[in-house]
Design goal:
With about 475 residues, this protein is mostly helical. The chain has 18 helices and 4 strands. Among the domains are: about 160 residues, no CATH class; about 160 residues, no CATH class. The strands form 2 sheets. Strands 1-2 form a two-stranded antiparallel ribbon. Strands 3-4 form a two-stranded antiparallel ribbon. The longest helix is centred in the N-terminal third of the chain and has 30 residues.
Length: about 475
């Protein structure tokens, strides 16, 4: 049974911390998030986000036709308008001009109509009301919808922080502010792309899992969890990975007593053996997927899992390739813009690397020196669940790279579905990295560093596109 014990990590370290409670109010965060997202939506020129032309095309076709377009289906006039706008806003190199007189639609990018239609149907609503206005106005209307998801995401972060640290206003303020100030996340959450709805939905899922772990299984959090995972999967199929932490949270909602480490080890081992037997088969001196998994992947997941299993890279290949890939993922998680070609100064790349290393060391030190023993059991489990979210996000992206490494290195934006667990672990981990008296100061310093990082990012965007 959980007891109310204040933690040196979660609870305030000085009486003065209580004076900042007013700064953690949700209304202030909503206003800051809205203005911040709107700034990025306006500053970044049209079409200067990953695959934004074809994301917009998908939504506009739904607005025009009132139905979901098929993969490969295009509208000549829509693609001409988009291509012409891309040319006018200097999307292509000097001298490149799309053929707007051809009877075939000009190429504007990768076809996004392979994705489920939910996000695009939502964005199509304002576009349909503005379909007679210039196409850039329609684009900004779609970006505005995505900014609303960003605001709701920050609000969820505030709620999660207040639940995790009910007596620590500084931590309540720091977690949503850190989320708000991540430049690459704000850049993504102010563009037309279905990952924005996935990020918001998975954040809501994390909130419902927190309620499960703290309060047990109750109707409202259960409905919230089911709705969030359904919305996430209907926005992008790869969000199905969210089912794994949901199952773990549901297990903890029923079993509310401590579990010894060796029980976890045995359970994970047996689960791994069961899954291996269920989905793999060994023939011709190689491992292969079971036919039912291949059929599921081809018809729904589209992850090319058979290609992944067939590769079976050696340890030498992993060591020679993956460190560089991980560094690309890490730096682009925090500060890459445009189509990945707009970067902040290398100084800030090193800052986020150091913060990441300090977070990992701080979490390890916290476990080694038992800094988290004063946490209630449900709080410790939330931290473990955060780790599961982060590991799954990294695993999914590395799997994507291993399948597509012949032509594409995924960017950190694919891991933004686990951005809130990452920030929560960073806020807790950095406190474990410093002496007790410095913990409030390190949170304040972290927020200030993110403010400077955000200013550097906006400056880089303005310098690249306008000066």
């Amino acid at each position: 049974m959980n007891t109310r014990v204040e933690s040196p990590i979660i609870s305030p370290t000085t009486p003065q911390v209580k004076q900042v409670r007013i700064l953690a109010t949700p209304w202030l965060l909503v206003i800051l998030a809205f203005l911040h997202g709107l700034l990025y939506a306006i500053v970044v020129p049209p079409w200067q986000h990953y695959d934004e032309p074809t994301h917009f095309e998908y939504a506009r076709l739904i607005a025009l036709w009132g139905r979901r377009p098929a993969v490969g289906e295009t509208d000549l006039e829509t693609n001409r308008e988009i291509a012409n706008s891309m040319y006018r806003f200097k999307f292509w190199q000097l001298g490149v001009y799309p053929d707007l007189l051809s009877t075939t639609s000009p190429h504007i990018g990768y076809d996004e109509k392979v994705h489920p239609p939910l996000y695009y149907a939502v964005v199509a609503l304002p576009i349909s009301m503005m379909r007679f206005l210039p196409i850039e106005h329609q684009l900004y209307a779609g970006r505005f919808i995505t900014v609303l998801f960003y605001v709701l995401m920050v609000l969820c972060a505030w709620r999660i922080a207040t639940i995790m640290a009910p007596t620590n206003p500084l931590l309540q303020m720091s977690i949503p502010l850190l989320l708000l100030l991540i430049p690459a996340l704000t850049n993504q959450m102010s563009a037309i792309n279905n990952d924005a709805l996935v990020n918001f939905s998975i954040t809501v899922l994390f909130l419902s899992c927190l309620y499960f772990i703290r309060d047990g299984l109750k109707p409202i959090p259960l409905c919230l969890a089911v709705l969030s995972i359904v919305v996430a999967v209907m926005a992008k199929r790869t969000a199905v990975v969210g089912i794994i932490p949901l199952i773990l949270a549901l297990f903890w909602s029923f079993y509310r007593r401590p579990i010894r480490w060796w029980v976890w080890l045995l359970g994970i081992t047996f689960l791994g053996i069961f899954l291996s037997v269920s989905i793999l088969e060994y023939r011709d001196s190689l491992w292969h997927l079971q036919p039912w998994i291949i059929a599921l992947d081809q018809q729904y997941l589209r992850l090319s899992l058979d290609t992944l299993i067939a590769r079976q890279p050696t340890l030498e290949q992993l060591v020679s390739v993956y460190p560089g890939v991980i560094d690309v993922l890490l730096t682009s998680f925090w500060g890459r813009f445009g189509w990945g070609h707009v970067v902040i100064t290398p100084f800030w790349d090193w800052v986020v690397r150091l913060f990441t290393i300090a977070t990992i060391v701080g979490l390890v030190m916290g476990m080694r020196f038992r800094l988290y023993t004063d946490l209630q059991m449900w709080q410790r489990r939330v931290l473990w669940l955060s780790g599961v979210f982060v590991v799954l996000a990294w695993f999914a992206v590395l799997v994507r790279f291993d399948i597509q490494q012949s032509f594409y290195v995924p960017q950190g934006r694919y891991m933004h579905l686990a951005v809130l667990p990452t920030i929560l672990l960073m806020g807790i981990g950095l406190q474990g990295f410093v002496p007790k008296l410095w913990r409030a100061k390190v949170l304040f310093a972290l927020v200030c560093s993110f403010v400077l990082l955000d200013i550097a990012a906006i400056t880089s965007i303005i310098l690249y596109y306008y000066i």
